């Protein structure tokens, strides 16, 4: 028994829509935005980095920053102020998601049709960077910075993941700018230094 042309068209459309939403759901919170950097410019040997690893904790998951983003955090600490043979750093990023509004009636069709495209999102993402630098066995810097971004959208899939990726990149850039500013000075910061964000 042959399928009708309309039913076959509907199946192809559903398959394409499902592929689009699944393809678009890729969220990369640990990737940098270093498109202008070539692979050759980013050292593969992490032993030369001040921060040899920066874990990112989100709920029960612990992720590691990718090489390009780790390199960007390493470059925030000037070599002349923090020589790598004398100094080492430890850091971690604590990520948190807070829902600002309850989901409404528009999310009810998800029970019937899991790929229903309308699902309002209103949430605030917070990244808290804790960093410490020791030189010659003494603590010379201890820092805490907090950045947050609000995600508001009515569609999920690629559009939502693009918003999350963009917000994550923006928060990393702000954290990098603040870290670079703080570490650019040639004085030992107060161990209680903290952002007022």
Give a quick precis of the structure:
The protein is an alpha+beta fold. 30% of the residues lie in helices and 29% in strands. It has one domain (5-183): Double Stranded RNA Binding Domain.
Break the fold down into its secondary structure elements and pairings.
Blueprint: H1 5-24, E1 55-58, E2 61-64, H2 67-75, E3 87-99, H3 109-112, E4 118-135, E5 138-155, H4 158-183
Parallel strand pairs: 1-3
Antiparallel strand pairs: 1-2, 3-4, 4-5
Helix pairs in contact: 1-4, 2-4
Descriptive labels:
4 helices; 197 residues; alpha+beta; Double Stranded RNA Binding Domain
Written account of the structure:
The chain has helices at about 5-25, 65-75, 110, 160-185, and strands at about 55-60, 60-65, 85-100, 120-135, 140-155. The protein has about 200 residues and is of the alpha+beta class. Residues about 15-25, about 105-110 and about 185-195 have low confidence and may be disordered. The chain is elongated. α1 (about 5-25) runs parallel beside α4 (about 160-185) and α2 packs parallel to α4. The termini are far apart. A hairpin with a 2-residue loop joins β1 (about 55-60) and β2 (about 60-65). A five-stranded mixed sheet has the order 2-1-3-4-5, covered by helices on one side. It has a single domain, classed as Double Stranded RNA Binding Domain. The protein has four helices and five strands; from the N terminus they run αββαβαββα.
